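PROTEIN SPECIFICATION:
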Amino acid sequence: ATTEDPRAANRDKFELELEFVQSLANPYYLHSLAQQNILDHLHSLTIWKKDYAMFIHYPHALHHLDLLQHAQFRSEMKKDEWREYLNQKQYDHWRTWRDYPGISTSVAPTDPQETGVQLQ
């Protein structure tokens, strides 16, 4: 066995766990894990909610991680109907989500007249 740099090993472990936690945002993946009875062994991942949330790109992963703490949810995720239900709820959230007031997501105008910029 080769001796690996502890920092590199730590980074590799972090990246692997990050990838796994983010995959929990996918209802189809959750369904697959549930059918394999893997969801019952994810209690140690709750640390991601508090300490590492800033690294998560898919917020539904953290929501699903919260739901996974409930035995009923883990059991229901084995069913195709629940996979579809969760998938639809996630889609509905994305479809109806709106930006907060005061935050503009519109593309900045390129016409100087629209921006009030005076050309010289």
